[in-house]
Design brief:
The protein is α+β, with helices and mostly antiparallel strands and about 150 residues long. Helices cover about 25% and strands about 40% of the residues. The protein starts with a strand and ends in an 11-residue tail after the last helix.
Length: about 150
Protein backbone atom coordinates (compact mmCIF):
# COMPACT_ATOMS: atom_id res chain seq x y z
CA UNK A 1 0.00 0.00 0.00
CA UNK A 2 1.40 3.39 -1.01
CA UNK A 3 0.44 6.66 0.63
CA UNK A 4 0.04 9.89 -1.33
CA UNK A 5 -0.53 13.15 0.54
CA UNK A 6 -1.12 16.77 -0.39
CA UNK A 7 -1.78 19.85 1.71
CA UNK A 8 -3.28 23.17 0.65
CA UNK A 9 -4.80 26.29 2.20
CA UNK A 10 -8.34 27.16 1.10
CA UNK A 11 -10.57 30.17 1.72
CA UNK A 12 -13.30 29.71 4.31
CA UNK A 13 -13.64 28.76 7.95
CA UNK A 14 -12.73 25.15 8.77
CA UNK A 15 -16.26 24.07 9.80
CA UNK A 16 -17.76 25.52 6.62
CA UNK A 17 -15.09 23.99 4.36
CA UNK A 18 -15.59 20.61 6.00
CA UNK A 19 -19.38 20.82 5.60
CA UNK A 20 -18.88 21.33 1.87
CA UNK A 21 -16.24 18.63 1.40
CA UNK A 22 -18.06 16.06 3.59
CA UNK A 23 -21.04 15.73 1.24
CA UNK A 24 -20.39 12.36 -0.45
CA UNK A 25 -22.40 13.38 -3.51
CA UNK A 26 -19.78 16.06 -4.21
CA UNK A 27 -16.85 13.61 -4.36
CA UNK A 28 -16.99 13.63 -8.15
CA UNK A 29 -16.37 17.39 -8.09
CA UNK A 30 -13.17 16.85 -6.10
CA UNK A 31 -11.70 13.51 -7.10
CA UNK A 32 -10.93 13.29 -10.83
CA UNK A 33 -11.20 9.50 -10.90
CA UNK A 34 -14.74 9.59 -9.42
CA UNK A 35 -17.48 10.06 -12.03
CA UNK A 36 -20.37 9.83 -9.55
CA UNK A 37 -20.97 9.02 -5.90
CA UNK A 38 -24.23 7.74 -4.49
CA UNK A 39 -24.93 7.18 -0.83
CA UNK A 40 -26.72 3.84 -0.47
CA UNK A 41 -27.27 3.20 3.25
CA UNK A 42 -25.67 4.35 6.47
CA UNK A 43 -21.96 4.79 5.80
CA UNK A 44 -22.06 2.89 2.51
CA UNK A 45 -21.78 4.47 -0.92
CA UNK A 46 -21.11 3.44 -4.50
CA UNK A 47 -18.46 5.29 -6.46
CA UNK A 48 -18.35 5.09 -10.25
CA UNK A 49 -14.72 5.61 -11.13
CA UNK A 50 -12.27 5.68 -14.04
CA UNK A 51 -8.70 4.63 -13.35
CA UNK A 52 -6.36 4.63 -16.31
CA UNK A 53 -9.35 5.11 -18.61
CA UNK A 54 -11.07 1.96 -17.34
CA UNK A 55 -14.58 2.45 -15.85
CA UNK A 56 -15.48 0.58 -12.69
CA UNK A 57 -17.75 0.70 -9.65
CA UNK A 58 -16.55 0.53 -6.07
CA UNK A 59 -18.55 -0.18 -2.98
CA UNK A 60 -17.03 1.97 -0.26
CA UNK A 61 -17.56 2.89 3.33
CA UNK A 62 -17.63 6.67 3.83
CA UNK A 63 -17.34 8.04 7.35
CA UNK A 64 -17.69 11.71 8.28
CA UNK A 65 -16.41 12.75 11.70
CA UNK A 66 -17.72 16.30 12.03
CA UNK A 67 -16.14 16.96 15.42
CA UNK A 68 -12.68 16.13 13.99
CA UNK A 69 -13.48 17.58 10.52
CA UNK A 70 -12.35 14.31 8.94
CA UNK A 71 -13.94 12.45 6.01
CA UNK A 72 -12.57 8.99 5.25
CA UNK A 73 -13.51 6.37 2.71
CA UNK A 74 -12.25 2.98 1.61
CA UNK A 75 -13.06 -0.23 -0.22
CA UNK A 76 -13.82 -3.42 1.65
CA UNK A 77 -10.65 -5.08 0.31
CA UNK A 78 -8.64 -1.96 1.31
CA UNK A 79 -7.13 -1.61 -2.18
CA UNK A 80 -8.16 2.04 -2.14
CA UNK A 81 -8.81 4.40 0.73
CA UNK A 82 -8.57 8.07 1.37
CA UNK A 83 -9.14 10.84 3.80
CA UNK A 84 -9.74 14.57 3.83
CA UNK A 85 -8.93 16.47 6.99
CA UNK A 86 -9.80 20.15 7.42
CA UNK A 87 -8.01 22.12 10.13
CA UNK A 88 -8.32 25.65 11.37
CA UNK A 89 -5.13 27.70 11.15
CA UNK A 90 -2.95 28.11 14.21
CA UNK A 91 -3.87 30.90 16.63
CA UNK A 92 -2.71 34.27 15.38
CA UNK A 93 -3.30 33.39 11.71
CA UNK A 94 -6.19 34.40 9.47
CA UNK A 95 -9.41 32.77 10.71
CA UNK A 96 -11.06 32.78 7.28
CA UNK A 97 -8.85 30.08 5.77
CA UNK A 98 -8.57 26.33 6.29
CA UNK A 99 -5.71 23.88 5.97
CA UNK A 100 -6.89 20.88 3.94
CA UNK A 101 -4.92 17.63 3.88
CA UNK A 102 -5.86 14.96 1.36
CA UNK A 103 -4.42 11.48 1.78
CA UNK A 104 -4.93 8.64 -0.72
CA UNK A 105 -3.68 5.09 -0.25
CA UNK A 106 -3.49 2.63 -3.13
CA UNK A 107 -2.19 -0.85 -3.87
CA UNK A 108 -0.25 -1.58 -7.05
CA UNK A 109 2.26 0.29 -9.20
CA UNK A 110 -0.25 1.27 -11.91
CA UNK A 111 -2.69 2.59 -9.33
CA UNK A 112 0.13 4.54 -7.66
CA UNK A 113 1.07 6.36 -10.89
CA UNK A 114 -2.54 7.34 -11.57
CA UNK A 115 -3.06 8.34 -7.94
CA UNK A 116 -0.17 10.83 -8.00
CA UNK A 117 -1.63 12.46 -11.11
CA UNK A 118 -5.13 12.43 -9.62
CA UNK A 119 -3.95 13.98 -6.36
CA UNK A 120 -2.50 16.98 -8.20
CA UNK A 121 -5.76 17.43 -10.11
CA UNK A 122 -7.76 16.92 -6.90
CA UNK A 123 -6.18 19.95 -5.24
CA UNK A 124 -6.98 22.09 -8.28
CA UNK A 125 -10.57 20.82 -8.40
CA UNK A 126 -11.18 21.27 -4.66
CA UNK A 127 -9.88 24.83 -4.83
CA UNK A 128 -12.01 25.64 -7.88
CA UNK A 129 -15.16 23.97 -6.55
CA UNK A 130 -14.90 25.62 -3.16
CA UNK A 131 -14.22 29.05 -4.68
CA UNK A 132 -17.28 28.63 -6.91
CA UNK A 133 -19.42 27.48 -3.98
CA UNK A 134 -18.38 30.52 -1.95
CA UNK A 135 -19.42 32.79 -4.85
CA UNK A 136 -22.76 30.93 -5.13
CA UNK A 137 -23.93 31.52 -1.57
CA UNK A 138 -21.43 29.84 0.68
CA UNK A 139 -22.15 27.80 3.79
CA UNK A 140 -25.89 28.50 4.03
CA UNK A 141 -26.46 26.66 0.74
CA UNK A 142 -24.40 23.56 1.65
CA UNK A 143 -25.83 20.31 2.94
CA UNK A 144 -23.96 18.45 5.64
CA UNK A 145 -23.54 14.68 5.21
CA UNK A 146 -22.61 12.95 8.43
Amino acid sequence: MSTHKAVTVLPGRADDVFAYLADVTRLSAHLPMVRSATRTAGEEAVLRIHVGGVPSSLGVCVRAQSERRRLSWGTVDESFRGEVHVAAPRPGHCRDVSVVTITLETAGVEADRHTEEALDRTLDRVTGALSGALRDGGPRSWRRWS
